[in-house]
Structures are given as C-alpha cells and as structure tokens.
User: Fold this.
Amino acid sequence: MSKLMSAKTKEILLGPLAKNNPITVQVLGICSALAVTAKLEPALVMGISVTIIVAFSNVIISLLRNTIPNRIRIIVQLVVVAALVTIVSEFLKAFAYDVSVQLSVYIGLIITNCILMGRLEAFAMSNSPWESFIDGLGNGFGYAWILVVVAFFRELLGSGTLFGHQVVPQALYDAGYSNNGLMILPPMALILVACIIWVHRAKDKELRE
Amino acid sequence: MNTNSNTYTFIYATVMVIIVALMLAFVSSALKGIQTKNVELDKKKQILSSLNVNLEGEDAAALYDQYIVQELIINTNADIQSDAMGEAFALDFGKEMSKEASERQLPLYVAEVEGATKYIIPMQGAGLWGSIWGYVSLNEDKNTVYGTYFSHASETPGLGAEIAEKEFQHRFIGKKIFNNQDQLVSIAVMKSGQKADNRDQVDGISGGTITSQGVEAMLLNCLTQYEAYFKIKGGTEE
Assistant:
C-alpha cells in the first residue's frame, strides 16, 4: 500500500481538489458546470460520470501510450473518450432514466469537456496507468465537488429543495419569502463559480496573480 | 517498431475503430431491452399525469393497467382502426403528425377514474427552442378538460419551461374546448388581462410568450384532428 500511495500519488490525487482544481484554477469544463447545476441530483450524476470517464480514459490512454502513433494521438484520445461517454450514457438510459432525461445532451457533451482532453494529453500520455488512474479520480472529484457546491446553493435558493425534497419550510413562504428565479438560470452558476474562485484565492496566496 | 510509419498508423486506426465499434454495438444491444422499458414507463407516467394521478412512490405500470381501460387508433373521420391494447401505445405520435392529415393514425386512450370515463389525447407541437408535447384528458362530455400534462425538450428554465409545472397545467382544468355554437375552438393561452374571443382561456406564462403560444397552437392543432370523434356523443362509438 505504501508503494501505491506514495507522497507523489497523494499529491496527484489531492492537488486537483484545491490547488490545481480543473474548474476554479484551470477554468476548464465551465459549460457543463453552468448547464447541469440547477438541481443537485443531475449535478452529482454528472460529477460521477465525468470522474468515471476521466479515470478510465486516463488508464486506457496510459496503457496505450507507447503504441499510439504520434500523428493521430488526439484522434485516438477522442475515440477512447467518445466510446466511454457513449457507454456511460447508455447505462444511464438503462438504469437512471429520469436523470439521463434531465442531463439530456450534456452527457454526450462530456466528450468535448476540456478536462478530459487536457488530462489525457498532459498526464496520461506520459505517466503510468496507476498514476493516471489516480490523476483521473483527482480531477473528476475536483470537478464534481464544485458542481455539487454550486448545485446545492442553486437548488436551495432557486427551488427551496435539496435532492427534490422541500427544505425551505412553508412558514417562511407564508412570511413573504420567495424562491429566487435567477438562481435557476445559467448566469447565476457563473457568479457562484466566481464566488468559489474568490474564496479559494483569498485563502491560498499562491494562486493570486 | 516505428510507430510513426504510415502503415502502422493506418493499421492502428483501423483496428482501434473496429474494436470500439464492436464494443459499442455489444453494450447497445445488451441494454436495449431495459432502455425501451424505461421509455415506455415514462410514457405511461406522462399519460397518468394528465389524469391528475399522484405517482409519487407508486408503480406506474400497475396504475396504468388499472386506469386505462381502452386504447384506440382512430383516423380523422373517427373510424376506429384498432382497439387492441398496446397498438395505440406503440404509435409514434410525432411521426403521425408529420403525415398527411387523411393518413394519420391517431392514438386515443380511454380511462376510467372513479367510475367516470375520460378520454386522453396526445399532443405534439413546437415551443420557442424545441419541441413541446403532452397529454390532455377530457371528461365524458368530450368537451371539458379533466387534466393536462405538458413537457418540453429545451424551453428556458423559469420562463417557458414553466409549462411542465403542475401549477400551469392545473389552469386548464374545467375549461371547455367547444364554444356555444358547438365549434371546436380549443382553449386560448393569453397574456393576463387580455380576453379571448368566444372561447375559454387560461393565463399564459409571463416571460414565456412564445412557449405559451406554442401550447395554444398545439392544443388547437391536435384537438382538431379528433373533432369528428368528439362530435359523436353519448358513447355510440363502441
């Protein structure tokens, strides 16, 4: 285990959660972060889907890295990602139909998520399968937790629910409180992501430009 | 081996594509059955939703069998072409709508709720960004709306997408689709404050004008095809 979890792999796993976060630091994958975060459930499923796809496409590319012809390497990466995305999408349609309807085109659009191509090209092409797997998990989780935090606030303030369950008490509505419709619209996700980036940089001096 | 040679690159690409294609074909065919079931179950939920049936935590398939007593395929002259269970359900209403009016096969669901007969008409139309669809259930008089269900592919959240909310759908309950002169005029979806001419109306969605108009057009368009059937009164259609 000590060999599996050396200081380096730990850094690979935990780095993307904060200091090297794909959304807040590298500003990748913003499109889907805006689109699927109006409710917690699709955001969580999206986060898990992306994590699975980054981790496994990283492993596959890492295994193939010495055989891939250099001139078509981007195409090979795309084919691997597209195949995995299609498989995940088919599984969602079969086992989580309601969520797949909510996510609609965004599952398919994982293919174009910059986080994936970025990790494959920057990491998996030059690292061992195990490290690539850890790197995929780290980046997937880094993406997922931002989505979940954004979705938490958007669903709570926009719909008064969490995971579809009413949490804002009726008494509050009777007292004149109302859901903020702006929260459901994509621009609010951008503002919330910006708030997370703000807090993040306020705490971590290294990230300031 | 030289991984940069043309031959290697060609062979590599070909083998990879074949492997991936086989894999996807396998996954797709292995999951096909479950996916079709999900789509059917979802359709049943939508149909039941137009009957104001509470689906929370219920088995939609069992409820469907309980409520829906007849599935008919009719044409625009109200001739019944099939009354076998499952046939009307399997029809692709969107596809039928794109055919010539005289060639259309129209599905119609007959339900029994608390001893009263209800007729459920499928709907298909266009909103602002994409398609909208739904189901409208009518009372035994084939005139008064008992319940509605609407959904959409890509209307704006908070605006046009509100048609999928029960709050909007409930506005149609009790409205009549025929006017006093016994003409099928459907129901108008108006901006609040405006008055429709000689027909029933509901309030549209503020900020969702085009979607509201889409719903109005869809109602008129789809209900009109069933006009001949609606005009047969008193259960003589059996």
Summary: Chain B touches chain A at residues 3-4, 8-9, 12-13, 16-17, 20, 23-24, 27-28, 31, 34-35, 38-39, 41-42, 153-154, 156-158 (CB under 8 Å). The mean pLDDT of chain B is 87. The first helix of chain B runs from residue 6 to 49. The first strand of chain B starts at residue 68 and ends at 74.
